[in-house]
Amino acid sequence: MNSSAPVLRTVLGDIAPDAVRGPALAHEHLVLDLDHRGDGGAVLAAGRHTAAVTAELTALREEYGLALVVELTCRGMGRDVRTLAQISRDAQVAVVASTGWYYEPFHTPEIDRGSVGDLAATLVREIEDGIGTTGIRPGVLGEIGSHGDIPTPPEGKVLRAAARAALATGLSVATHAQLGRGGLAQLELLTGEGLPPHRISLGHQDLLDDPAVHRELAASGAYVAFDTVGKDGYQSDDTRLRLLLALLEAGHADRALLSCDISRHGYLTSEGGQGYGHLFGSFLPKVRAAGVDDDLIDLLTRRNPLRFLSGANVEES
Known about the structure:
The chain is α/β, with parallel strands linked by helices. The protein is 39% helix and 15% strand.
């Protein structure tokens, strides 16, 4: 990854950022299993839901030009990169796979056993050699999780390991900040390991109704992810719109990322949910109606995620 010409590592191979002509979804799940309660809700199962996921992405490519999905299902979240490759091939949409660990309730046993260096080495091996025996290599570290205003010690260990792996491989880091909280602490831990802010995306900030925090994160050079668009049970889209417009008006349009974070099969359109296309079909029309032009929409939905993934700074792109 550390080369003069930036590339995006997808599940079907490396591509040049300028080959991506359409919008991207910066934080999604296409296959996952977070079903710790046993109710079967927090699942997008390989096989059972794959056809519906593929159909949605295909339709979004045809209607809106969807070109790329950043898939942030990592270790301990039911990751299945073979199925991601199948979905990408069938939908004709590029998919970036991830590595890392989610927040503490989903940690795997090696986190307790290993040092920060051990965990970083595990991530570097996946990035360099591929995930399991698939040969498919992650193109981003994420979603690296914490909950609360301060990460727990195991979560801090994982954040530091992710930063070290990012520095060793050239990848960027996307976080899970539970309900939008803890982004500043995540940023401090990641940059404390030497990772530049422009290679960090702080997740779920649209769930935190605090424009001052958003401005502080963006002013540091990090990306502010408004990535649960359409999840009205957590936050209304009207509030998300207000928060996004405040960030744009503060001069930080080049630091915002947008997505829907589809993480349950009930969110699929085939099951009556809002689907992956809610961003394009519902939220972006409201953004446009608020006076945001097409060039700025392209910045938010294509150029920003490409710059984040490739590790390029604003002045380099």
